[in-house]
Amino acid sequence: MKNKYILVVVLALVVIGTVIGAVVMHKRSPAQSLTSAQQTKFLMDTAVEIRAFGPDAEAAVEAAFAEMARVEQLFSRHLEDSAVSQINAHAGEWVTVAPEVVALLEKALYYSEISSGAFDITVGVLIDLWNFGGSPQRVPADEEIARVLAAVDYTAVELDADAGRVRIPVGTIIDLGGIAKGYAVDRACQVLKQHGITSGMIYAGGDITTIGSKPDGSSWRVGVQHPRQSNSLIAVLEMTDSSIVTSGDYERYFFQDNIRYHHILDPQTGYPAQGLISVTVYGGDAADADALSTALFVLGWDKGKELIESLAGYEAILMDTSSNVWVSSGLRDLAQIL
Amino acid sequence: MRIRKGDLLIFVVLMLIGFFMLYNNFFRSKVSGDIAVVEIDGQILEKFDLTVDVDGYRVETDYGYNVLEVADGSIRVVEADCPDQTCVRFGWIKTIGQTIVCLPHKMIIRIANESADLGLDGVAY
What are the E-state strand segments in chain B? Predict the structure, then answer.
């Protein structure tokens, strides 16, 4: 009889031991060969957080931040030595630039073309006129807007890719703010991967790019902020190796006479784009998603839908002023609309 | 040596005790409440338990000040001396992964959970 009890106890211990062992192994095995790093820095006029898992995550994250700083040095309009500042300072003349600058300008002009100018890097003068975030904040006079609009025209940008040079008309100011941040994130991702990072996430001023899946193998779960209720989300997405960029009228804005004036300007009218309040673009590259989110926001509900459905590899979620939500066909299985 | 009802009972009781200990060790301790982490320039300054209301917590650094409020499981910036006031206008946040950023003050408030792995990895805005 005594033996039997011992047997029962032993059996119970074996079962429990096995379960504990399995749980411990499950929790530890994926993480132990990896190191992890998480760091936040302020650059490109925004907060950038990088999370990475890999053989030497700390070094990888450092290198990724260094790469983003390098890209900022090339494309910031507010740094005197940047390629973009050189082009602007020498408007009217050919300016020789690095192949990397030619490539991003080509991409920017491509998005201008397919969006019929809804995305336009020559909006620099317009951005300066509105001066969002500056003070005093006011709506410019119609005449002022009409005057600067003459200098807003992407077709006037001459790009000689073979010779590696670019020329813009006198009076025009290019601003790559709508695509350079995404490009910097793409470059940072490349650097992380070169350092052996197999799982990671870059969170740059509200835009998210992921490398691989999470260390436990599951997808990254990302929410999309509701543009009017800070406490709510409009959707939750599952993502791996992809980017999500959101443009909204709630990020930078001011009210004058009870009208909201936000920072996403329509290059055709010179005024804040009307119709949509939030656009989220999902796809492989952050630079492309970045340019597309602005383009769709300016194009509005109908033309925005048309453009995103015509592009392979990029999807979108749109919300209009009446809070109607539309999800592009390729995202309906990946996004949970709340 | 036949197994009787009593043996089975002992077995089940032992199993229950075992699994209870397992649950305590591995799971229950992880399921703590959501917190708000306040970072300045990438360094964690303060963590708030969102179940405890806090009225008018002042964060003051060389960059300036932000006054925070915790209520109903949410956190917001009530007041700040930053030029853009983006952090104040953002309003309340409560969902894991949500953030409020005050760029001029290099301050980030993020909703997290000590046990991680719960909820969202981030919120796009």
Answer: 34-40, 43-49, 54-61, 64-71, 74-80, 99-102, 107-113, 122-124
- CATH code for residues B32-113: 2.60.320.10
Q: CB distance from B112 to chain A under 8 Å? A: no
Where residue B87 falls (left for φ over 0; alpha for ψ -120 to 50; beta otherwise) is: alpha
Provide mean pLDDT across the span B54-63. 93
**Quick check: is A78 in a domain?**
no
Give domain status of residue A267, yes or no. Answer: yes
Domain that holds residue A261: 219-338
CATH number of the CATH domain containing A320: 3.10.520.10
Residue A138 touches chain B, beta carbons under 8 Å: no
* Distance, CA of A46 to CA of B104 (rounded, Å): 10
Helix axes A180-194, A57-75, angle to 10 degrees: 150
- Are B109 and B99 in contact by the 8 Å Cβ rule? The answer is yes
Report the domain count for chain A: 1
Which amino acid is residue A67, in one-letter code? E
Cα distance between residue B117 and residue B99, in whole Å: 17
* Chain B 85-104, residues with CB within 8 Å of chain A CB atoms: 86, 90-95, 97-99, 101, 103
Residue with tokens 């390729």: A330
pLDDT, one tens digit per residue, over A154-179 is 999 999 999 999 999 999 999 999 99
Got the DSSP string for A240-260? SS-EEEEEETTSSEEEETTEE
Which residues is B65 bridged to in the sheet? B60
Q: What is the ipTM of this complex?
A: 0.74
B120: pLDDT confidence band, cut at 50, 70 and 90?
A: confident
CA dihedral B107, B113, B115, B118 (to 10 degrees): -120
- Cα Rg, chain B, nearest whole Å: 22
For all residues of chain A together, what is the average pLDDT? Answer: 92
Q: Does B5 touch chain A (CB under 8 A)?
A: no
- Residues in B 20-49 with any Cβ partner in A closer than 8 A: 22, 26, 39, 41-42
The CA distance from B57 to the nearest CA of chain A, in Å, is: 20
Question: A with B: how many residue pairs have Cβ under 8 Å apart?
Answer: 118
